[in-house]
Every structure is written in C-alpha cells, then in structure tokens.
Amino acid sequence: MIVYKHKKIAFIFYFISLWGYSQIATYNQYPTLKPSHILDEKLTDISFAFSMRVLESDYVGPLIRLRRAGDNAEQDFGWGDNDIVDIVAINAWRGANNVFVHTWYDQSGLNRHAIQTTLNRQPRFYPETFPYFQGDGSNDHLTIDTPNGIQDVTTNGDRGTVIGVMRATRKSQHSFGVLVSSNRWSAHVNWNNQNLYFDPGVCCNPTRNFNNSGNNNVWEIYSFIKTNTNSIARSGGVQRFNGAYIRGRCTRTEDFAIGWATGNQSAQHATTSFNEFIMYKVDINATEYQEIEENSITFWGL
C-alpha cells in the first residue's frame, strides 16, 4: 500500500511536470515581438534618414559620432532603452568638454552618412533631454557625399521630399540643400525677414514662402515636397503653401548639405538646429509623410 501511494504521488508529479513543460514549450513557440519604428515600412525611394533616435528596427549601427573638444577624441554612440541617443553615455564620456558632430549616421541602409571631418566646421552637439546640433552660422555644416550630389537624392534635381525636426532661427541662411546663385534645391529656416523659403529648383518660383515668425527658436516638424507640378511646405502637420511650380529643375551636382546649401554663398551658413532629417528622392504620398510627421510630433512632444 505504501508503495502504491509512492507510485501514485510520483505519477502525479510526473504528469504535472509534463504539463508544465508542455505549457512552456508552447509559449516559447511565439518569438519575441519585434519593436516597431516609423521607417520600418517606409524605405522605398528613401535618400537618407538621420535622427537622434532609432528610426528603423533592422538598423544596428550607431546614431552619431562625436568629437570631444579637450583632446579631439572621437566616439560613436547608439541609443538607450528610450530609443534616443544615449545621453548618459555621452555626458560620461565628454565630462566638462563641449562635443561636436563628426558623423550623423544614415539609418536608411544606403550608408549616406552626413559627415564633417574639418574640426572648425563641425556643428556643436547639445546632449540635452531633447538632443540636437547647431552650427555657428559661420562655416559649420555636414555633407552627404554621393557621386552626382543633389541629383542622386532627388529625382534628377526635381522631385523630392524632406521631413525634419528643426528649430528655426532668424538669419540670412541656407538651412539645407544645394545652392549656386539661382540654381538650387534648398530652404531657409528662417530668413532674416522671418519667412521660411523653399526653392526646389531655379529661383524664384511665385509660390515659395510663408511667414514663420511664430516658430522662431521653437522646435517644429517641417515637410518640404516637390511634385511633378507643385511645391509644398508644411509645419506642425499643417500645409502652409501648395502652389504650381513653373521654374526649371536644379541642374547642379554639388553634394547635399545640412546646416548650409553647398554652393557659392559660404557667408550664409545656418544657425538652424537639427534633431531629425529624412529625405526621399520622390514626392512620397500624403499618407506616408503625414504618418512620419505625426510620429515625430508624438515621440518628441512637439
């Protein structure tokens, strides 16, 4: 009888063990859910994608490479659990030093990184809760090196889309793009009259600007779209202008710049601040750019 009880207890324990194991095995058949990021399904026709956060779930590289002023040492930095560039690690590494941007890494998979190797032209990086960089307005900028310059990141100097989180400043400045006199694909965020200008081709198209004085020194999401027929600018998820474009395409081949428009007006480098900058070589559809805008607005609390 005692033997029977032991056998019965052993059988019950064995059954429970099998049941528990089967539950664990069944549970493990489901893989960990992959995190979702805004560009996961939006890489078609992309030119490059820069941000102070991770934008694409398969991206495994760093977000930014910084130079420490005290000894000119350089280091790459990824992101923390909040998906934002690792500010804690940056501050531990820099100590009391200022830091400057050497490379803003492209998350599109095309490796079109925005780079500045000349020390006195590197914009300063600000490792704050809302991380960003800003040029001094004299000669600071980053360059995206492609074989045919602006022609590669747009549709032959014509169609294209830029979506960026920026802080406008008041200055005679070219915030991004390419510009040689009137032949340009660029924007002013803002010009010294507090207007924002977008010129996706030969200047100057009748529809090209809106008053942006209310956003001076304020973080905002901006979108610039050049279609086959129209030039469009948006801020805060709202359309500011949409008009027929009647001028010619940009025929320059200089490399696209951030913090300047590569060309012949070096005195007009920007003091615009940058947190995120995404570009497509076509005019992506409204659903897509509105989804990116809304995601950035929500993520960054704009």
Helix and strand layout, with pairings?
Elements: H1 2-27, E1 46-51, E2 64-68, E3 74-77, H2 87-94, E4 99-104, E5 114-115, E6 124-126, E7 132-134, E8 142-144, H3 150-153, E9 160-167, E10 176-180, E11 183-188, E12 195-200, E13 209-211, E14 219-226, E15 230-235, E16 238-244, E17 256-258, E18 262-263, E19 273-280, H4 286-300
Parallel strand pairs: 10-18
Antiparallel strand pairs: 1-19, 2-3, 2-4, 4-5, 4-6, 5-8, 6-7, 7-19, 8-17, 9-14, 9-19, 10-11, 10-17, 11-12, 12-13, 14-15, 15-16
What does this entry look like structurally?
This protein has 302 residues and is an alpha+beta fold. It is globular and about 50 Å long. The model is unreliable at 1-32 (pLDDT under 50). Among the domains are: 1-30; 46-60 and 136-300, Sandwich (Jelly Rolls). The chain has helices at residues 2-27, 87-94, 150-153, 286-300, and strands at residues 46-51, 64-68, 74-77, 99-104, 114-115, 124-126, 132-134, 142-144, 160-167, 176-180, 183-188, 195-200, 209-211, 219-226, 230-235, 238-244, 256-258, 262-263, 273-280. It has a 19-stranded mixed beta sheet that branches.
Q: What radius of gyration results from the CA coordinates?
A: 25 Å
**CATH topology-level name of the domain at 46-60 and 136-300:** Jelly Rolls
Give the % helix: 10-25%
Count of helical segments? Answer: 4
DSSP E strands, number: 19
According to CATH, what is the class of the domain at 46-60 and 136-300? Answer: Mainly Beta
Give the overall silhouette: globular
The CATH architecture of the domain at 46-60 and 136-300:
Sandwich
The low-pLDDT segments are 1-32
Helices and strands, in N-to-C order? HEEEHEEEEEHEEEEEEEEEEEH
Distance between the termini: 76 Å
Largest sheet: 19 strands, mixed
* Mean pLDDT reading: 91
Assign the structural class, choosing from mainly alpha, mainly beta, alpha/beta, alpha+beta, or little secondary structure. alpha+beta
- Beta-strand share of residues: 25-35%
